């Protein structure tokens, strides 16, 4: 029987020698993913929510090996686009384990998913607008539908990830029962859904989550005859070194209690929780520049590799793998900055760290969730490589030819 391992895996727990070897073999910047940790995170989720339906939010990390690990752990897949559905199908998720959450779905996505539905009639499409129901009916879809509700309650680590109150997502709570009733004319309505936001960690977030779940319980009792009530994902992970781990059992108990007595299964959709602490980003120090306020350590990874600090001011732990015991370097304020021509391209500003030397290898923690997935080729930077902790290549390093491969026209004779 697989083990859930420790409640949290800190950056300090990674084996420095192993990470240095991987960087030497594969170069930097390099994502390292520990598939065993992915499996452990799945086990802890299963243990905390033994009778719930658990769906992994694929968007957090779409890598094939990660998806296969999740599938083997008995957890289903929640997909945000046709592309993610395609990846989940490729990774072997059967139709009944596939949930496509259609957010303002492009026509091409609906065309594809409805086409795949004919081969996988058990897949479920979650819709957040009456309009989407019409567009599905136009395409001949009459299968399993879940109605996404905007509960008017948001939570999460940053304004930009507080989904639950954003008008963009879900049908307004007051209209949800009507939309469910209408949808029942043409589809098999199997569930209702809401997602408060991402990075639920503190008491306030938990209170918001509880309120959302209670509202969804009320809705489920009102409309009746559902397979499940999906209360979204958002379970947080400790990004700061001294953040306590999320008490998953307490979250599960609070969720159950808030939901109350419903004749439907509970469903949850964690993304970050499954993969965040299973990944680190390795990056080499290329330039060290003392300034009056801080030492700038110029590294070879940037916001194109890991966008979260630039986009959400997200904190990620940073460890110097060549100076774990100081290495005689001394400590001081350090600004770890990438090679992108953007002021926001830093991983930390004036953080108290051991002062790096050129050639040092740094590890950035909790990079497994929304890390590689949000990588871009801005500044014509090839995307990084990704390997498992065992050294198997999961994604090759992109080449400059790869970056320009879609280019057409021009060219001098
Ligand atoms: N379900 C739905 C409908 C969602 O929209 C999301 C995340 C999840 C589940 C999973 O949330 P999680 O458990 O991973 O917090 N790029 C941002 C996060 C955006 C999440 C969007 N939706 C970040 O790096 O923090």
TrEMBL record:
Identify the cofactor(s).
pyridoxal 5'-phosphate
The entry's pyridoxal 5'-phosphate-binding residues are: 234, 269-272, 370
| Sites bearing N6-(pyridoxal phosphate)lysine, chain numbering | 59
The catalysed reaction is:
meso-2,6-diaminopimelate + H(+) = L-lysine + CO2
Tell me which Gene Ontology terms the entry assigns under biological process: lysine biosynthetic process via diaminopimelate
What residues bind substrate, as annotated?
A: 272, 308, 312, 342, 370
Q: Which positions fall inside the Orn/DAP/Arg decarboxylase 2 N-terminal domain?
A: 36-276
Q: What is its EC number?
A: 4.1.1.20
Quote the catalytic residue positions.
Answer: 341
Name a GO molecular-function annotation: pyridoxal phosphate binding
Q: How does it assemble?
A: Homodimer.
Family named by the database record: Belongs to the Orn/Lys/Arg decarboxylase class-II family. LysA subfamily.
Question: What's the protein here called?
Answer: Diaminopimelate decarboxylase
Upper lineage is: Archaea, Methanobacteriati, Methanobacteriota, Stenosarchaea group, Halobacteria
